[in-house]
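Renewal narrative, Specific Aim 1. Our central claim is that a sequence can be written position by position from structural information alone. The example that follows is taken directly from our test logs and has not been curated for this report. It begins with the structure tokens describing the chain, in the order in which they were read.
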């Protein structure tokens, strides 16, 4: 895919039906006029002409989220299906430089966030994003959030077909669409192209897995559409809508589900307003009937108004060949990186590279190196992933050593992407109003223990650790092999940060399940508790036995017994550090604010 030329964006689709361009020259997601409206709304709010509740709804609809710190905001950039061009990466680098933290943060929904932003600065940053086709619109609030896609789509050797163009069509159809501007709650959609389900479809309001019915000349592309999944304090796995949804029927189906949710979702109790609770209230069969009846009506009333979707053909850039390079002889760091981070594409001679980010954080310099790497080695694009990383694609096999050297110099060649060492963490109490504990600090501590003290397990595939700073599961702790969510408990009359440990979660094909609660561990004991658990697995596993299979064989009672020594604290006078959170230098207090997830 070619690099976008300056000014080469098509006209915004404004959420209305329209045809997609090729992925190398996409229409802009931005609408400059709405940024002027936002700017005026901010001025009206400061002048007292707009009340705070009205302004909050408007602000969230435009991707501006309050932090626990007063008078600063989190700005969330919507990255549909995770697709970014080199020019967009460079603009994200410019934005990061202008924010106090000096970092971008990749989220588990493939977005990029910036923290500690002054409200007065937001319109300027929005305009800078719009110049390269990016928007913050509907990245927060009671709208359809970012439409995500498993990051290997288009290059996966096992995919039925590339679902990216369909995800793009869904995202463009819904963006700014009047029918989903004031939903009962937020609404999430995800796509996967293969049975590995890297899009994590079972935990979304709508999940769509690419499938092909028939064979040879009679083959028909379509999707298995799932509905009603979600995490949070009451996790639910999505259920099938119907046996097969033809690709041409996908947009009417999605529109029907969204409209039924808008009409029947709970508007009285925000804690019960997600689609998963509507499934629970009505039952899956009555809900199916409502959706299919709505789809029939849409087919009639909007005949010819849904955009057609043409397949995209993934292809390498047309740049000249580089000289390549020899793998560094005897360099174990290169060999480890190659084993863990390099994924062969289905297109012979090319590989995709997982770029592991610590806690999802990326500096301006690193964003610019990624842009350079995408242009000079790949197809001019990258994908953000739902594991808080980036994926470089279309890298010729013989150029991997040279690319590694460039990435390593920028701190972008950390091994173990999507392996045990690659710990996922939400922002937690560092910035989130709902955060109880510092999930980011714990993530670094756990990764350090694994790297330093569990030799040989750091790059283990099939074991993931995910951390949330509260029960809401922004860190996806329910679907981790080892999941942790923050809380608090009093020991000897003093409050201390704790984590509930869940074991055995995962979305293995055909066997999705949530982790089971096993122990509640003080925050400072968590790394040692995990070390004890992983050491037991290493000692007792049978050849080829997965971590979850071992947990099942060991049994809950044995695991509770193993972890019991790590669940208590001595009095604060004897062990004051145990009453501090990770990265804190003052006593822990349970202080949360009114979260805006359901505002």
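The sequence written for that structure reads:
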């Amino acid at each position: 895919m070619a690099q976008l030329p300056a000014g080469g964006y098509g006209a915004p689709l404004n959420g209305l039906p329209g045809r997609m361009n090729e992925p190398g020259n996409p229409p802009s997601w931005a609408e400059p006029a709405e940024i002027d409206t936002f700017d005026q709304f901010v001025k009206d709010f400061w002048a007292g002409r707009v009340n705070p509740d009205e302004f909050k709804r408007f602000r969230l609809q435009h991707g501006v989220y309050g932090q626990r710190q007063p008078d600063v905001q989190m700005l969330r950039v919507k990255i549909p299906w995770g697709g970014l061009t080199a020019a967009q990466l460079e603009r994200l680098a410019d934005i990061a430089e202008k924010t106090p933290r000096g970092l971008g943060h990749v989220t588990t929904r493939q977005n990029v966030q910036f923290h500690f932003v002054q409200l007065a600065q937001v319109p300027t940053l929005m305009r800078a994003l719009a110049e390269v086709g990016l928007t913050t619109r509907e990245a927060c609030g009671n709208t359809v959030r970012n439409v995500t896609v498993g990051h290997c789509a288009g290059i996966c050797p096992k995919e039925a077909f590339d679902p990216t163009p369909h995800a793009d069509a869904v995202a463009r159809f819904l963006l700014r669409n009047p029918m989903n501007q004031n939903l009962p709650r937020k609404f999430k959609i995800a796509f996967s192209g293969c049975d590995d389900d890297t899009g994590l479809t079972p935990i979304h309001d709508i999940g769509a897995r690419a499938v092909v019915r028939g064979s040879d000349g009679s083959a028909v592309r379509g999707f298995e559409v799932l509905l009603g999944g979600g995490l949070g304090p009451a996790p639910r796995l999505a259920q099938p809508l119907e046996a097969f949804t033809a690709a041409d029927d996908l947009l009417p189906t999605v529109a029907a589900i969204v409209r039924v949710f808008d009409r029947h979702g709970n508007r009285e109790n925000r804690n019960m307003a997600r689609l998963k609770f509507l499934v629970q209230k009505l039952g899956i069969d009555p809900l199916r009937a409502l959706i299919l009846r709505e789809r029939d009506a849409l087919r009639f009333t909007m005949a010819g108004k849904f955009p057609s979707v043409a397949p995209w053909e993934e292809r390498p850039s047309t740049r000249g060949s580089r000289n390549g390079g020899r793998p560094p002889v005897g360099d174990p760091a290169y060999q480890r990186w190659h084993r863990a981070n390099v994924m062969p594409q289905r297109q012979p001679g090319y590989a995709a590279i997982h770029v592991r980010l610590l806690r999802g954080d990326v500096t301006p310099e690193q964003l610019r190196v990624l842009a350079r790497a995408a242009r000079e080695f790949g197809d001019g694009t990258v994908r953000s992933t739902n594991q808080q990383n980036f994926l470089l694609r279309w890298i010729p096999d013989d150029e991997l050593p040279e690319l590694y050297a460039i990435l390593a110099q920028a701190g972008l060649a950390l091994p173990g992407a999507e392996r045990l060492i690659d710990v996922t963490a939400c922002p937690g109490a560092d910035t989130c109003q709902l955060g109880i504990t510092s999930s980011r600090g714990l993530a670094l501590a756990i990764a350090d223990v694994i790297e330093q003290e569990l030799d040989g397990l750091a790059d283990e595939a099939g074991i993931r650790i995910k951390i949330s700073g509260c029960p809401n599961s922004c860190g996806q702790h329910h679907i981790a092999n080892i999941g942790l969510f923050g809380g608090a408990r009093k020991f000897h009359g003093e409050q201390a940060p704790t984590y509930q440990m869940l074991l055995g979660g995962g979305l293995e094909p055909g066997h999705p399940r949530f982790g089971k609660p096993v122990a509640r561990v003080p925050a400072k004991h968590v790394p040692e508790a995990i070390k004890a658990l992983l050491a037991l697995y290493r000692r007792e596993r049978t050849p080829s036995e997965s971590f979850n299979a071992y947990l099942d064989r060991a049994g809950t009672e044995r695991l509770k017994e193993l972890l019991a020594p790590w669940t208590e604290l001595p009095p604060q006078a004897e062990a004051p550090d145990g009453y501090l959170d990770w990265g804190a230098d003052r006593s822990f207090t349970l202080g949360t604010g009114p979260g805006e997830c359901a505002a």
